[in-house]
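Support request, please re-run this one:
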Amino acid sequence: MRLPSIISRPERPFEKRRAQVKEWMGLEGEPCALAYLRDMIEFYDTIFLINHGRWRRWQIITIVSGVVATVIAAINIPPQLGLAPEAISIVRAVPVAIASIAAGLSGAFRYQGEAVRQGMTADALKSELASYIARAEPYAKIDTDRVSHLMQRVGSIIAAERGNWQSQFTPKDADGAPAKQGS
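Re-run finished. Output below.
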């Protein structure tokens, strides 16, 4: 049975990725560099889509359950229906609980920030690939070691993204600077 698209999990691309890694590892020189760069672009595009989808789902769940909670709270249930007050309270509490949990998960996992960072990395890699293929700056005047220059720039883009990711998990002091460990 297929889950509705709002809660279904996206396909995980890691098996395909393993095959691509094996493919470019068997190459040399420019073909290897370009295959690696295209693999990194696809990886960051895929992770962007996954995290953007997760953020969007949690936002939709939060908004819809918040609206449902508001509407249910505004409905006056007449005593003639014979519903116990406890049952009415539970019915009113469920959408509030769902909205609270969804908002908490969305904030805790920072899917939107992850998606933005990964999308920006994918765009930077695409720009680098286009500049290299078109022989635009900074590759316009380089005839030797173009591949080395490309790999250094690609490595810098990926290292910056990983540094941004890692900094999210580094304890900070009161001023926002990385805290010294062991002191």
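Helices lie at 14-25, 29-74, 85-109, 111-134, 146-167. Residues 29-74 form the longest helix (46 residues).
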